[in-house]
Amino acid sequence: MALLSRTAENLYWIGRYVERAENMARLLESGKRMSAIPRVADQPPPWEAILSAAGVLHTFKEQHTELNQLNTVAHMAFSQDNPSSIYSAIAAARANARSIRTAMTIDMWEAINEFWHSLLGTGPIEPGDGRLLPFLDTVKQKCALFRGVADSTILRNDTYDFLRLGTFVERADCTARLLDVEYFALTQPEDAADSPIDTYHWAVILRATSSARAYNWVYGGGYDLENMIDFLVLNTRSPRSLAFCIENITEHLNRLARLYAERHDCHEICASIATELSQNDAEAVIESGLHEFLTRFIARNNWLSSQIGRDYHFTNMALPIDPKPEDEDLDEVSEQSLNQAMS
């Protein structure tokens, strides 16, 4: 029996919220490490770049006048007024989970509920008190625990498919944003390996995505722009790459199509994105412009998410944090991109 649309919607957003909380932690970790690197005059401050990458710079400026670590951490981790903060994401995930407890396993509910209560017990983190990185590690571990519990306890039906769709849509968005912000921080984007500072930036992004060891296994170490793009954009063996995420979204959408005996526009959009990724190599991405490529991908990924909601009759009642305001101006780009790809 097919899920109710509201249940499917809640599962999809639980997947996105938990992944978003982890991604916020990864972006903050990246910002913390970037702030220790000297920057050239025309580069934005690292905290501004992180806020921009997270899509929350506008809400930050509405609430804070000084751009520093204290205010950035407060806004991205603990703010109740920022709908994308770790606090807000887990609060929303728990609220959605509570409304569909019978569609989840007991272990899944206990994992998200315990995560929420651990956040409530976390006090303000001051610069220099040594608590930021351990806190971010805890957030990543709690998110991984929830996914692990879900993977090991949930029935492999449409419940699982909608939950995982949310996870991979959100993960693809974060990887693209993180890669884009780090690319702009490079001192020599065209070479991207000649400067010790640029080498450190690549190390930061690999560490932020927990990919350093896997990268070294695949490429034997050393940082090269083409290898970085191949690993984080095109390599389907890399679990945080754009291609891996789209491959998994395709798999779960196809499972839903077989289960419901019906295909929708979201299947065509996903197929067009997968085709674009498979037909490009790193050299072609560089020639077309990495920033432009990532901007186009983010827009199309957001459009795919919206189309999934339309095709499976989500009501938007559980969508307080999407679309990100900075993404709205990309909708037109996404539609143009898809039309070109499908023509």
From TrEMBL:
<dbReference type="InterPro" id="IPR007296">
    <property type="entry name" value="DUF403"/>
</dbReference>
<dbReference type="Pfam" id="PF04168">
    <property type="entry name" value="Alpha-E"/>
</dbReference>
<feature type="region of interest" description="Disordered">
    <location>
        <begin position="323"/>
        <end position="343"/>
    </location>
</feature>
<feature type="domain" description="DUF403">
    <location>
        <begin position="3"/>
        <end position="312"/>
    </location>
</feature>
<protein>
    <submittedName>
        <fullName>Alpha-E domain-containing protein</fullName>
    </submittedName>
</protein>
<dbReference type="InterPro" id="IPR051680">
    <property type="entry name" value="ATP-dep_Glu-Cys_Ligase-2"/>
</dbReference>
<feature type="compositionally biased region" description="Acidic residues">
    <location>
        <begin position="325"/>
        <end position="334"/>
    </location>
</feature>
